Amino acid sequence: MRARAAALLRACRPKQWVKNLLVFAAPGAAGRLDDPAVFGWTAVVFVLFCVAASGTYLLNDVRDAEEDRRHERKRRRPVASGALSPRFAAVAGAVLVVAAPLAVLPTGRLPLFVVLVGYLLLTGAYTLWLKDIAVCDIVAVAGCHVLRALAGGVAIGVPFTSWFLIVVLLAALLVVAGKREAELRNPGSGGGRATLARYSVRYLAQVRTMAAGAMIVTYCLWALENHTGPELGFHAASIVPFIMFVLRHHLLVDRGQGEEPEEIALRDRPLQVSLLGLVVLVGLGIYVG
C-alpha cells in the first residue's frame, strides 16, 4: 500500500502543479491578494486545479502507456513502468476529475465551475484527439494555461483586461512552442508524439519568436500607457526583468532544455531571479504605487 501510494503521488506529477500558480495572476494584478479572504479562496482554487490536473495526468498516462514505454524518460512513469496498474490509475484519475468541479458546486460560484469544467473538457479533448493534430495541440495546451488564469479571476469576481489575457495567451504559446522545439532538438525525447513529425525546429522557433515579440510589445504598452504617478515608475522598471526572463527562456530552449518548463522554472537560478524581480516590481506598482 505504501509503494502504491508513492507511485500514485508520482503519477499525479506534483512538480507540474507549479503551472496552477497562474490562478493567483488575476487577483494579484487587481491588487486583491492583500485581502486574507481573497488570498484564501484563491489558494482553494489552486488546490482544485491541482486535483483536476492530477486526474487528467493519470488518465493521460493510461492512454499513452505504450508510447511512454518507448521514451527514454517517460518510461519511468508509474503506469508505463508497471509500478501502478492502469485500472487503478484510471479509477483514481476519474475520481479526481469528477471531485474537483463537484467541490465547487456547494460554494455557488458558477463561473468558476464553468471554467473548471471547460479546462477538463479541453484537456480531455487534447488527450483523445487534439494532441495528434499539428498546431491544434499547441493552441490547446496554451488554452489550458489561459483557463487557469481565468479561474483565479472569476473565483473572486475580478474583471479582466485585454492586456492581461493577451500577455497570458502569448506567454503560454511561447512556453508550449519551446517545449515542442526542445523535444525535436533532443532525439527520441518526443516519445512517439505523432505531431512532432509535422513540425520543424525552424517553424517552432518562428512561433516562439513571434509570441515573444508580441508579448514584449503588449507588456510594454500596458506598463507605460496604463499607469500614472509613482506606480508608473515601478511598472516601467519591471520591463527590464520581464525582457530578461523572456531572453533567458529563449537561451534555455536553444540549448534543448525547454522540454519540461516546470523543471527549468524550479532549477534555473537566472530565470528565477528575473521572475522574482518582475513579481517584486509589479507588486510594488500595484500595492505601493
Automatic annotation (TrEMBL):
Native organism taxonomy: Bacteria, Bacillati, Actinomycetota, Actinomycetes, Streptosporangiales
Keyword Cytoplasm applies: no
Keyword set, alphabetical order: Glycosyltransferase, Membrane, Transferase, Transmembrane, Transmembrane helix
InterPro entries (alphabetical): UbiA_prenyltransferase (IPR000537), UbiA_sf (IPR044878)
GO molecular function per UniProt: glycosyltransferase activity; transferase activity, transferring alkyl or aryl (other than methyl) groups
Annotated transmembrane regions: 38-59, 79-104, 110-129, 150-177, 203-222, 234-251, 271-288
Gene3D superfamilies according to UniProt: UbiA prenyltransferase
Listed CDD domains: PT_UbiA_2 (cd13963)
Lineage: superkingdom: Bacteria
Keyword Metal-binding attributed: no
Membrane topology note: Multi-pass membrane protein
Gene Ontology cellular component annotations, sorted alphabetically: membrane
Subcellular location(s) per record: Membrane
Pfam family, one: UbiA
Name listed for the protein in its UniProt record: Decaprenyl-phosphate phosphoribosyltransferase
